[in-house]
Amino acid sequence: MWIHPVGTEYNENPMKSSITSKQGLLLLSGVLLTVGVSYIPALGNHLVADSWVFVYPRSLGETLAFFHHSIIPEEWGAFWLRPLTMLFFWLDNVVWPGTEWGPHITNIVFHLINVMLVWYIVAYICGCMKNAQPGGNFFLPGFTAALFYGLHPLNVGSVGWVAARFDVMCVTCGLGGLSLWLRWYNEPGKMRKAFISVLLLIFAVLSKEQGVVFLVVCFLIALYGAFTRDERRSSYLSGCGVLGGAIVLCLVYRISVFGGMGGYITPEKGVYAIPPLAYCAAILFPYLNLFPGWSLTPSFWISSLILLVLFIFNRKTVKARKRTTVQSVHIAAAAGLSVLGFATTSPHAGIGFSDIMGHAESRFAIIAITGIALMAGIAVHVLVRSVHACRIMLLVLFVWGCTAAWRTDVQLQAWKDAGNTAHQIIQTVLGEAPSPPRNSHMLFYDIPRGNGQFAYIFGIGLREAILCHYPGRNDITILPRAVGKNLKAVDPDRDYVFRYNTSRKNLERLFPQQR
Question: Considering the entire predicted model, what is its pTM?
Answer without folding.
Answer: 0.91
